[in-house]
TrEMBL record:
It comes from Streptomyces hainanensis. InterPro entries: ABC_phos-bd_PstS, PBP_domain, Phosphate-bind_PstS. Pfam families: PBP_like_2. GO terms for biological process: phosphate ion transmembrane transport. Keywords: Phosphate transport, Signal, Transport. Gene3D superfamilies: Periplasmic binding protein-like II (3.40.190.10). GO terms for cellular component: ATP-binding cassette (ABC) transporter complex. Belongs to the PstS family. The lineage of its organism: Bacteria, Bacillati, Actinomycetota, Actinomycetes, Kitasatosporales. Residues 1-21 form the signal peptide. Coiled coil: none annotated. This is Phosphate-binding protein. GO terms for molecular function: phosphate ion binding. Residues 37-327 form the PBP domain.
Length: 361
């Protein structure tokens, strides 16, 4: 839901406390590093979903941790991140979808060694709304699928009214906004609809790039979707929570697997992430979320290689992502932007995976 300044400050203070507690608990896993010893440049590309946080992480790391380092991350969308990683055009890629078997085979051919992929954060995909009066609007998977399939075209539709008996709904045409670029945010959103709504699974399915209904509007990146929602009466669009927070947008509550309408808070995102079963290869989805969990929750993965880096670049890739997972300041920045922390055990597993980067030289 849309936060007023005081409410947001309280929420962020609580979120920061939650994250810092988790970080301190995991502090024993933090490696010993001689700070100020690294130099070099890193290039990365991919998801817009984590871009607000990645830019804060990069600034904090290069300004106050390793000042001889330059890191350039381009938010080109998850599809672009996968493409550039597999083209060997960047030092690391980023996506809200993990690399699947065919892509892992391509990666193996590119470098002659295995790709390394690991999650670094969790975040909510929220439904942002143009009309502030609709803040807290309750939507369920069937209604969301109906909106994007244009079966439901007005906010006072009976299906929406049934979910919101105490809200005065306007007779306004709904304008659904989607990502026009290859997007992990699209993957998370359409994965949710595919697992919950049969007609969506048959007609659209899940993916980073969907053949959307003609009567919907596209926007490039989370920024483009946010802008389209802001500028168009009746607009509704799916974006990363940080974009809704930064622009003080009204957001919807979404009904989860237990039939509970859940506000997309940091705590609700954390609750959802804790229900995920995460295998050794880190290839997972966050499905069928109940309890207090927000149901449209995703992760962001980083891609690197077991070989092919020079020693300076390899050390820098490993150190930056280890710092992002273990540093108190890094976790504080994540909390402020609405990203959920990983638990101590998952952090330990991910740091172990980071150690594979360039392990084959």
């Amino acid at each position: 839901m849309r936060r007023r300044p005081f409410a947001r400050a309280v929420a962020l203070t609580a979120a920061a406390a939650l994250v810092l507690a988790g970080c301190v608990a995991g502090g024993d896993d933090r490696p010993t590093v001689t700070r100020g010893s690294l130099t070099g440049e890193l290039t990365g590309a991919g998801a817009t979903f984590p871009d607000p946080l990645f830019q804060e992480w990069i600034a904090s790391y290069t300004d106050g941790v390793e000042t001889g380092v330059d890191i350039d991350y381009q938010a080109v969308g998850s599809g672009g991140g996968i493409e550039q990683f597999l083209a060997d055009a960047v030092d690391f890629g980023s996506s809200e979808r993990y690399l699947q078997q065919g892509e892992l085979s391509v990666a193996r051919e590119v470098r002659g060694c295995e790709a390394v992929q690991f999650p670094v954060l969790f975040g909510a995909v929220v439904l942002a709304l143009h009309d502030d009066a609709l803040d807290g609007l309750v939507l369920d998977p069937d209604v969301l699928a109906g909106i994007y399939d244009r079966r439901i075209t007005r906010y006072d539709d009976p299906a929406i009214a049934a979910l919101n008996p105490d809200m005065e709904l306007p007779d306004t045409e709904i304008l659904p906004v989607h990502r026009s670029d290859g997007s992990g945010t699209t993957y998370v959103f359409t994965r949710f609809l595919t697992t919950e709504v049969p007609f969506w699974a048959q007609g659209y399915a899940e993916g980073t790039d969907i053949d959307w209904h003609d009567d919907t509007l596209g926007g490039e990146g989370n920024e483009g979707v946010t802008r389209a929602v802001q500028e168009n009466a009746g607009g509704i669009g799916y974006v990363n929570q940080s974009y809704a927070l930064a622009n003080d947008l009204a957001t919807a509550r979404v009904v989860n697997e237990d039939g509970t309408p859940v506000e997309p808070t940091l705590e609700a995102t954390t609750a959802a992430s804790e229900e995920a079963t995460i295998p050794d290869d880190f290839q997972f989805n966050i499905d069928d979320i109940g309890g207090e969990g927000y149901p449209i929750t995703g992760a962001n993965w980083i891609f690197a290689y077991e070989c092919g880096y020079d020693d300076e670049t390899a050390a820098l890739v490993r150190d930056f992502w280890t710092w992002a997972l273990t540093d108190v300041e890094a976790d504080r920045l994540a909390a402020e932007l609405g990203y959920a922390p990983m638990g101590r055990e998952l952090k330990r597993r991910v740091i172990e995976e980071i150690g594979r980067i360039n392990s084959r030289g």
